[in-house]
Amino acid sequence: MSDTSLSGAAPPAASATPVAQAIKGGRKLTTVYVYEAPVRLWHWVNALSIVVLCITGYFIGSPFPTLSGEASAHYLMGTIRFVHFAAGYILAVGFLGRIIWAFFGNKYSRELFTFPFWRKSFWRGFFVEIKWYAFLKPRPLKFVGHNPLAQVFMFFVMVLGLAFMIVTGFALYSEGTGPGSWQDKLFGWVLPLLGGSMQVHTLHHLGMWVIILFVIIHVYSVIREDIMSRQTMVSAITNGHRTFRDDDPE
Amino acid sequence: MALETFYEVMRRQGITRRSFLKYCSLTAAALGLGPEFAPQIAEAMETKPRTPVLWLHGLECTCCSESFIRSAHPLAKDVVLSMISLDYDDTLMASAGHQAEAILDEVMEKYKGNYILAVEGNPPLNEDGMYCIIGGKPFVDQLKKVAKDAKAIISWGSCASYGCVQAARPNPTRATPVHEVIFDKPIIKVPGCPPIAEVMTGVITYMLTFDRLPDLDRQGRPKMFYSQRIHDKCYRRPHFDAGQYVESFDDEGARKGYCLYKVGCKGPTTYNACSTVRWNDGVSFPIQAGHGCIGCSEDGFWDKGSWYARLADLKGSGFGVEANADQVGLIAAGAVGAGVAVHAAVSALKRAQHKNTDNGADNSATGGEK
């Protein structure tokens, strides 16, 4: 897990003087390589797929105004659905690849899939972050990977939420590919389990909104953290290196 | 009652052999079997002793029976039906009262383990089943009694298969589908409100002639009739793919026969054979008549919201009277967006405030680094 303190060795009480000295002797910025190339690639492919899926998905549920002329002259809904399915496949393959990468990547690559509720330090960081977001704490902690609050969101929306969308998505897709198709064999059981096709459509739709909420919060907090926290955000997921703005412990 | 074959019964009913063979090939076609199966059906019907069908009625509206007796095949109507009414169907048979109940006992005794039980409607379980009394006893008792020695059970219609209207929220009588009362028998669900007549006679004919259950899907429905959605075989499907929809029931699109998706057609979520077999001798089906499918053969279709809306409503989940996923989502997104905006504003203020004090501190510590 991401550790809360980078220079954990230094006792917090003695921090004031060495920092002042460090600053006096020129600014030293600690940089850690956090997000390896596959993780970055996945992030942006995933983000793009989600945008495409949300837009096309919305227009499958609420189609454009009717087109005039012969049906043979258009294939609008067909195209929208095709793009949705293609993006869905890309998202699903990316998700699988991301899971596989968690076995090979650095320790931060596994962070997404863990929710270390048994760790005291996790909950400490979690509540400090909540206080930071509630303006009750003037300064947040430092984190190499995700902060615990972000990790909770990531785990429940990006791992469990995306898994739910992939499973329900393929279950709905199997309605078109028909009984006996691999989609039906792997995911068809979901339809009766969740109360039928109509219900699964609605849940899949609600899932979209949960992800949209996540995206709003994610983009906002990333920008905010990039400006106000003690480490970089946007550049970290672009070039993989996270830079810290100070060398204070804690 | 000697063990006569189907063919003998048919001949007794005045059916010619020519008509009989026509029926066999039509049935083979209806069941999705190749032409080589027609002689097989004929042979089975000529040689096999007929299997009695006992048809019980629980909480129901008799729409299944009404549909069944309108089967397009005259032979299915005359023969299969008369064979059934020979045994037990309290709506259609001539006898009544104790005499009728005696027939039930007699068939159960004589064909023990060898008759098919067809159930129309379902048993209510509240108040010890007192909401549906047959022959002085709760229907659930009769159902359990007859099911005990049945070879297989057919759940006719959405009532027996899923509960249908009497099981809709709040289900005051606790109407319960057959498969939640009987656990030890194979159950074939033939949902629909009502099911299509040819589907009903097709399922019975298949079971009687081949002496086995049709292939069933995950939900226990015969694959031959319920493996595709109405949408998949709908003749208006090209308009769906093209993006041509009826926007309201009196518009140009409605007159031109565009897709009914936007006015809430449940074809895309409903498994049935309406768009292929159609109704009333293949005359039409709801979508052809210009009205969207209401999804009557789907589990819990009464509780999934308006028949004219694309999304199931969420009132059962505590989201107000008519809220759907989009409304809930939009409101949530709006609330979160507003929250984010306020949070961003406060953050900016705090930062500005903080910077001022920070700068003061910095100045003293670093000698005016800026």
UniProtKB/TrEMBL annotation, chain A:
Protein's membrane topology: Multi-pass membrane protein
The family this protein is said to belong to: Belongs to the HupC/HyaC/HydC family.
GO process annotations (BP): respiratory electron transport chain
Domain of life: Bacteria
SUPFAM superfamilies from the UniProt entry: Transmembrane di-heme cytochromes
Gene Ontology molecular functions: electron transfer activity; heme binding; iron ion binding
Residue ranges occupied by any Cytochrome b561 bacterial/Ni-hydrogenase domain in the UniProt entry: 34-239
Compartments, record wording: Cell membrane
Pfam family, one: Ni_hydr_CYTB
GO cellular component, one term: plasma membrane
Keyword line: Cell membrane, Electron transport, Heme, Iron, Membrane, Metal-binding, Transmembrane, Transmembrane helix, Transport
Annotated transmembrane regions: 41-61, 82-101, 148-173, 206-223
Function: B-type cytochrome involved in electron transfer from hydrogenase to oxygen.
Major subcellular location class: membrane
Protein's name according to its UniProt entry: Probable Ni/Fe-hydrogenase B-type cytochrome subunit
Transport in keyword set: yes
Family matches, as InterPro entries: Cyt_b561_bac/Ni-Hgenase, Di-haem_cyt_TM, Hydrogenase_cytochrome, Ni-dep_Hydgase_cyt-B
UniProtKB/TrEMBL annotation, chain B:
Primary location recorded for the protein, binned into one broad class: membrane
Cellular compartment(s): Cell membrane
EC number in record: 1.12.99.6
GO cellular component, one term: plasma membrane
Binding site for [4Fe-4S] cluster 1: C61, C64, C159, C193
Superkingdom per UniProt: Bacteria
Domain NADH:ubiquinone oxidoreductase-like 20kDa subunit: 61-206
Annotated GO MF terms: 3 iron, 4 sulfur cluster binding; 4 iron, 4 sulfur cluster binding; electron transfer activity; ferredoxin hydrogenase activity; hydrogenase (acceptor) activity; metal ion binding
Ranges where the Cytochrome-c3 hydrogenase C-terminal domain occurs: 226-306
UniProt-listed Pfam families: NiFe_hyd_SSU_C, Oxidored_q6
Binding site for [4Fe-4S] cluster 2: H231, C234, C259, C265
PANTHER family on file: HYDROGENASE-1 SMALL CHAIN (PTHR30013:SF6), NIFE / NIFESE HYDROGENASE SMALL SUBUNIT FAMILY MEMBER (PTHR30013)
Protein name: hydrogenase (acceptor)
Protein species of origin: Xanthobacter autotrophicus
